[in-house]
Write a structure and sequence with these properties.
With about 220 residues, the chain is of the alpha+beta class. The protein has helices spanning about 85-95, 110-115, 125-145, 160-175, 180-185, 195-215, and strands spanning about 5-10, 15-25, 30-35, 40-45, 50-55, 60-70, 75-80. The longest helix has 23 residues, at about 195-215. The model has no long low-confidence stretch (mean pLDDT about 90).
Length: about 220
């Protein structure tokens, strides 16, 4: 079975993932765009209306635009690549994916339909709500006393340190704990769907935690 893989960026709806945080995978049965928290999309050949080249800015703002029939996905789906969009489309055609656009669905395809019903966002809905709530509470713990003039000096202290520590711990648990991933990810999603983004957040939050913790102690 011929396969085609490409690393790039992606725009899904209004959200954008820059290079190298998106992956395109195509074989004769499926087309996947894994853009981590921006969206994990999977298509059958029958889901595709057309795949066209898309150019906003030459070389850095070009890719392929996917028109599809999946109601639970955002309609604006673009995969960004520095390669010639026509070359990418030709590679997709060579997998045989587009040739099967008129084939009937099979029982195996229903697994893909089930994942599509969940939408493109890989996390369970409760998790980002709870995390954003905790994040804002911790920031307010620092900011409110500063603006109410109950504390002098910098507006950020141990509240932001705890928030960044929580972000670091969440990213770390996502990478190393299958049980934690089962808690936060939708059914059928796995580490590969969010691995790059989790590793990036682990690095950034770790550096920021060290910087803010040093400032809080000084």
């Amino acid at each position: 079975m011929k396969q085609f893989r490409l690393t790039g960026g992606a725009r899904i709806g209004r959200a954008n993932a820059t290079y190298p945080f998106a992956e395109l995978y195509v074989d004769e049965n499926i087309l996947k765009i894994n853009a981590s928290l921006v969206g994990n999309l999977i298509f059958q050949p029958q889901d595709i209306i057309s795949i066209k080249s898309y150019k906003a800015i030459p070389f850095i703002g070009q890719g392929i635009k996917i028109l599809h029939r999946v109601d639970n996905y955002k309609q604006n789906v673009i995969f960004w690549t520095m390669k010639d969009p026509e070359f990418v489309i030709s590679q997709i055609k060579q997998t045989g994916f587009l040739e099967k656009a008129t084939f009937p669905l099979t029982e195996k395809d229903q697994q893909i339909v089930s994942q599509q019903r969940q939408g493109g966002f890989p996390l369970k809905p409760f998790f980002p709500v709870v995390f954003i709530l905790l994040w804002n509470i911790l920031l307010l713990y620092d900011i409110l006393p500063f603006f109410l003039q109950k504390r002098s000096g910098r507006p950020f202290g141990f509240g932001i340190c705890i928030a960044l520590g929580l972000l670091f711990l969440t990213a770390l648990m996502t990478l190393v704990s299958a049980g934690f991933r089962k808690l936060i990810l939708k059914e059928g999603r796995d580490l590969e769907d969010i691995k790059k983004f989790a590793a990036f957040i682990l690095l950034i939050s770790g550096v920021m935690f060290a910087a803010f913790f040093t400032l809080a102690l000084s």
